[in-house]
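Subject: for your reference before the review

Hello V.,

The reviewers asked for a structural picture of the protein, and I figured it would be easier to keep everything in one thread rather than splitting it across files. Below is the amino acid sequence we used in the manuscript, unchanged from the supplementary table.
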Amino acid sequence: MKYKKKDHVSSDKKIVIKLTKKYGSGVFANDNIKNGETIHILTGEKMTLGEFVTKVNSGEEYIDDPFQIGRRTYIDLNELSRTFNHSCDPNGGIRNQSELFALRDIKKGEELTYDYSTTVSPTVWSMKCKCGSEKCRKIIRDILSIPKSQIKKYKKVGALQTYMKPILKEIEAGAYKIPRYETLSIERVKDRKKVIRDA
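And here is what came back from the structure prediction:
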């Protein structure tokens, strides 16, 4: 979505949607934000994995639009919540279910980002990354694509969702396998280009 005439300020006045220099719209700090401070609660309508696939197949959603909050549960994010962009070296992280918070002090005018991969359980989904940071991984994938050193950092500061913590424990113990329901759901996506997306 483009905002040509004026910026779209959120009701909490802390954040504002603007055009970025790299890719469409993004969300920016409209005031200084302190390390650890809540930036925004990502919200939207809850949906099941099956409903998610149905919306992708009908063209209502891109496969990377819904936000995962459980092994088989997603949020169909509202317009503001889905406008936060990804970065491989973000200034924000996700804790609890969908709380975006500051990983460091953020100055007014900075774009607000988080690492999409921290919210995606193991799957075959991917999309190209355009964040341009020195740590850019070039391709955004699931939680397994994040370097171990960065996962360690996210753990230390609490930048992991509640549902993801036990999954990571299973992965670290070598006990995790991609569930059959996940594999079957991906197979239901009619257009494979939607799974491996050129964003």
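For the response letter, the relevant points are probably these. Residues 49-58 form the longest helix (10 residues). The mean pLDDT is 88.

Happy to draft the paragraph if you're swamped.

O.
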